[in-house]
Amino acid sequence: MERAEWLKKMRAHAEALYDHLAPAYWVTFGFYPNAAHCQFIAKFLGRLGAHSAILDAGCGAGRYDGMLLEARHSVLGIDQSASMLARAREHFPQERFPGLRYAKMGLQEIDFKAEFDGAICIDALEHVSPEDWPGILTRFHKALKPGGVLYVTVEVPDWAEVGAAYERSKARGLPVVFGEVVDQVDTASAQIAALDWQAISGEQSDPAVYHYHPSLEQVRAWLDEAGLAIEEEGIGDGYAHLLMRKKA
Fold this sequence. Notes:
With 248 residues, this protein is α/β, with parallel strands linked by helices. The protein has two domains: 1-31 and 158-212, no CATH class; 33-156 and 214-246, Rossmann fold, CATH 3.40.50.150. Helix content is 38%, strand content 22%. It is built from nine helices and nine strands. The chain has helices at residues 3-21, 35-46, 65-70, 82-91, 133-143, 159-171, 185-193, 202-205, 216-225, and strands spanning 53-57, 74-79, 100-104, 116-121, 144-155, 180-181, 211-212, 228-236, 239-246. The strands form two sheets. It has a seven-stranded mixed beta sheet with strand order 3-2-1-4-5-9-8, sandwiched between helices. Strands 6-7 form a two-stranded antiparallel sheet. The longest helix has 19 residues, at 3-21. The N and C termini lie far apart (43 Å).
């Protein structure tokens, strides 16, 4: 299969998978501790002025939106999974949280112009192909107001396993590049499709969706090219955490 068409298939597959898993969020999934994530959200919030407008990109079921709302900011959460957004709306009904809105939109479709004081993208970029990374970061830059703040996480993989997965995928004739982990997507997703959501664990769902792991050096280069200046970095909870600001 030609790579561009294969990537479209992988993206559609990811959307379908998260639609299937959505009922588990706020029930089975969503309560695991991520101390480093919470620490960096606090750092992110500390860089914003009062009553800021925040974009939560790849928000899923809205796991971190409560922290943003508690800080008295307005929030727009976007995600490509309609079912995940439905879970978010159930957890944060608009009649109780008028400062929070949700919209179906993938990271690749972000099309805002200087509308947000800050944006976050947490535990989502690992599902983005290398072809899409630069454009998405440029879209974040355009969405932020001058001096706006962006917080993203980048999953830190086992590089030996990444290399092994790459070799397995190449042996199967898949149009992969190094950093992509996709060799179990077909079999793992078929197993999950046969299960009720209550019987699915995070360990089962992770190999059932496309992953791409760029090096942190590559991420830093893409951020710089997109006009985003890193102010702070850290490692924790299996992720690199990057806080940055829109360049003047």
